[in-house]
Design a protein that fits this description.
Blueprint: E1 7-10, E2 13-16, H1 21-31, H2 33-47, H3 51-57, H4 59-65, H5 80-106, H6 109-128, H7 133-161, H8 167-171, H9 173-192, H10 200-206, H11 209-221, H12 226-231, H13 235-246, H14 252-266, H15 271-274, H16 281-295, H17 299-304, H18 306-312, H19 317-345, H20 347-373, H21 383-401, H22 404-414, H23 421-450, H24 453-472, H25 484-489, H26 500-515
Antiparallel strand pairs: 1-2
Helix pairs in contact: 1-7, 1-9, 2-7, 2-9, 2-10, 2-11, 3-4, 5-6, 5-7, 5-23, 6-7, 6-10, 6-11, 7-22, 7-23, 9-10, 9-19, 14-26, 16-22, 16-23, 18-19, 19-20, 19-21, 20-21, 20-24
C-alpha cells in the first residue's frame, strides 16, 4: 500500500515519504488504543441514563428523575456521587500519567500500551460484575489507569512511526478509533437499554474488555519505535525497524537525525527539570494550553453525558439514546474529514475553521434551550424544536471532530524534541485528564446553576482558544519531528524564547547529520 510522496526533502535532507503496508498496519493496531478511551466516554453516559442502573446504584437520583414534570429540568440529574462514577476514571488517569511517562521512556512505547490494555481489561471485568457503588468506582479507577497509559503512549507511538508528510493523518487514527469507540458504545447502550431483567448496563460495562483485549494483544506483536529503540541502546534494531516501516534502505538522513537527537537526549538527566527551561517554553505552553482548551470546548460533557443531557432537555429515554448515536456517527465521519485534510490544509486552518463553527453552534444551542426552558427549567420540547437542537449539536460535534478533537492529541505529541518528549506528553495527558475530571464532576451541578448559560460559558472559551491559535500556534504540517525546533525559532513571538544560540546549535546539528 502506498500513498503520498515517495521522498520528502527538508533542509537539504531526504526523508522517505511513502506509506508502506507495514507502517499502516502498526499505526492501525496502535490506534486501537483510542477504542478504550472512546468506548468509555460513550458507555458511561448511556448506563447513567438507564433506569435499571440508576435504581440499583443511585436510587435517590432515580427517584428524582422519575418525579413529576414540574421538577426543574436543569437539575433533575444533579448528583455528586453519580458524576464521581463517571469522572473518577479521569482522576486515576491523571495520577497514572506520571508513572506512564517513566514506563514509556524506560521500557518503550509498546509496553506502556500493553500496561494500558491489561489494566483496562481488569477494570471492565470489575465494572461488569459490580454489586455496589464502591466496586463500580474501583473498576473505574482501573479503567483510568488503562486510559492514562494508552493516552501517554499511543499518540507518541503514532507520531514517531509515521513519515513526516503523513504524520497528521496517521496520528489522527487515534482520534478516529476514539470516535468508533464512542459510536460502538452508543449503539450498545441503545440495544441493551430495555433488556428484560435490567442487566443491559452489565453488558455495556463488561464489553469494555473487547477493545482492551485488542490493544493488549496488539501491543505484544507491534515493534517499538526507532526513536525509542535508539534511546534505549538498541541502535541496530532501530535501523531495521526504520527500514521496514519506510520500505526502503535509503533512511540514512532520518536515522542520523534520530541518533543525534538521542545523543542530545541522553545528556539530559532530569527531563522534568529541563522542560521548564526558557528554550522549551513554547512547547511547554502548547502542552498545557492545547489539552486545557480541548476540554473547555465542552465536548466531553456533550459526549459522555449526551443521553442524560437529551433526557434533561425533554427527550424520551429511547430518543435520547438514539440522539447520542446520531452525534456519535457525526463525530466519526467528521474525523475522517480531518484525516483527509490535515496534511494538506494544515493544523491551523482546521483549528480556526472548527473553532469558529463550534463557537456559533454553542451560542445557538444555549439560545434554543434558553427560549424553551428559560431560567426556571420548566417546559417540554416539541419534536421540531428538538430536531433543530440536535442539528446544531451535530454541527458543534462535527467542528470538534475535524479540529480540536484530533489536533488536541496530535499537536502536543509532535512539537517536543526527544529529550523531553515523554515528559511533555505526560504533561499534556495530565492537563487533559485533570480538566476532564473537573468538568465531568462539575457539569451536572453547573447545568443546574448556570442553566442555558453553561453553553455560553463554553462558547466564551471557544473565542479565547481560537484567538490563541491564530496568534501563537505555528504550522507544523510536513515538518520532520526531529526538525521541529526550527519551527519555533522562526515564529514571530516564540522565536525570542528559542535563542539564536539554541536555533544555531539545532541547525548546526542538522548540517552535521546531513554530512555524515
Amino acid at each position: 500500500m502506498a500513498g503520498g510522496a515517495m521522498v520528502q526533502t527538508v533542509g537539504g535532507k531526504t526523508y522517505p515519504g511513502r506509506m508502506t503496508a507495514f507502517v499502516f498496519f502498526t499505526c492501525l493496531v496502535a490506534s486501537s488504543g483510542g477504542l478504550i478511551f472512546g468506548y468509555d466516554i460513550g458507555i458511561s453516559g448511556g448506563v447513567t441514563s438507564m433506569d435499571s442502573f440508576l435504581s440499583e446504584f443511585f436510587p435517590s437520583v432515580y427517584a428524582k428523575a422519575k418525579a413529576s414534570k414540574d421538577t426543574n429540568q436543569y437539575c433533575k440529574f444533579n448528583s455528586q456521587l453519580l458524576t464521581l462514577f463517571t469522572s473518577s476514571l479521569y482522576l486515576a488517569a491523571l495520577a497514572t500519567s506520571f508513572v506512564a511517562a517513566w514506563v514509556t521512556r524506560v521500557f518503550g512505547r509498546k509496553w506502556s500500551m500493553f500496561c494500558g490494555g491489561i489494566t483496562f481489561l481488569a477494570g471492565s471485568a470489575l465494572n461488569g460484575a459490580a454489586t455496589d457503588v464502591m466496586m463500580l468506582i474501583l473498576g473505574r479507577i482501573l479503567l483510568g489507569v488503562g486510559v492514562g497509559f494508552a493516552n501517554q503512549s499511543v499518540p507518541l507511538y503514532l507520531s514517531e512511526m509515521a513519515p513526516a508528510n503523513m504524520r497528521g493523518m496517521l496520528n489522527i487514527g487515534f482520534q478516529l478509533m476514539t470516535t468508533i469507540g464512542i459510536l460502538s458504545a452508543n449503539l450498545i447502550n441503545y440495544a441493551t437499554a430495555n433488556l428484560e431483567g435490567g442487566w443491559g448496563w452489565r453488558i455495556g460495562l463488561g464489553l469494555a474488555g473487547v477493545p482492551a483485549l485488542i490493544i493488549t494483544l496488539g501491543a505484544l506483536v507491534l515493534p517499538d519505535t526507532p526513536n525509542s529503540l535508539i534511546a534505549r541502546g538498541y541502535a541496530g534494531d532501530a535501523k531495521r525497524v526504520l527500514v521496514k516501516i519506510r520500505g526502503t534502505d535509503d533512511v540514512h538522513d532520518e536515522y542520523e537525525d534520530m541518533v543525534a537527537a538521542s545523543e542530545e537526549a541522553s545528556a539530559i538527566e532530569h527531563p522534568w527539570r529541563n522542560i521548564l527551561e526558557r528554550k522549551y517554553r513554547p512547547q511547554l505552553t502548547v502542552a498545557v494550553l492545547i489539552p486545557f482548551f480541548q476540554q473547555l470546548t465542552g465536548i466531553n460533557v456533550i459526549m459522555f453525558y449526551a443521553p442524560v443531557l437529551f433526557l434533561t432537555i425533554g427527550f424520551a429515554g429511547d430518543a435520547s439514546l438514539m440522539s447520542a448515536v446520531i452525534t456519535g456517527l457525526v463525530n466519526m465521519f467528521a474525523t475522517v474529514v480531518s484525516i483527509v485534510s490535515v496534511d494538506r490544509l494544515g493544523r491551523r486552518a482546521l483549528f480556526l475553521q472548527g473553532g469558529t463553527q463550534m463557537f456559533i453552534s454553542q451560542v445557538v444551542v444555549g439560545t434554543l434551550i434558553a427560549l424553551q426552558f428559560g431560567t426556571t427549567g420548566d417546559g417540554e420540547m416539541s419534536r421540531s424544536y428538538a430536531i433543530l437542537l440536535v442539528l446544531f449539536i451535530c454541527l458543534y460535534v462535527a467542528g470538534f471532530a475535524w479540529s480540536w478533537g484530533p489536533l488536541g492529541w496530535l499537536v502536543p505529541s509532535e512539537v517536543f524534541s526527544l529529550e523531553i518528549r515523554s515528559a511533555g506528553q505526560s504533561i499534556a495527558v495530565c492537563v487533559n485528564m485533570l480538566l476532564t475530571f473537573i468538568i465531568g464532576q462539575a457539569f451536572l451541578t453547573m447545568l443546574c446553576h448556570l442553566k442555558f448559560g453553561l453553553f455560553y460559558f463554553f462558547a466564551g472559551w471557544m473565542l479565547v482558544m481560537t484567538t490563541f491559535v491564530a496568534l501563537f500556534l505555528p504550522e507544523t504540517k510536513g515538518v520532520p519531528i526531529e526538525e521541529m525546533n526550527l519551527v519555533w525559532s522562526r515564529h514571530w513571538f516564540w522565536g525570542s524564547y528559542v535563542t539564536g544560540h539554541d536555533a544555531g546549535a539545532a541547525a548546526a546539528g542538522n548540517r552535521r547529520s546531513h554530512n555524515v
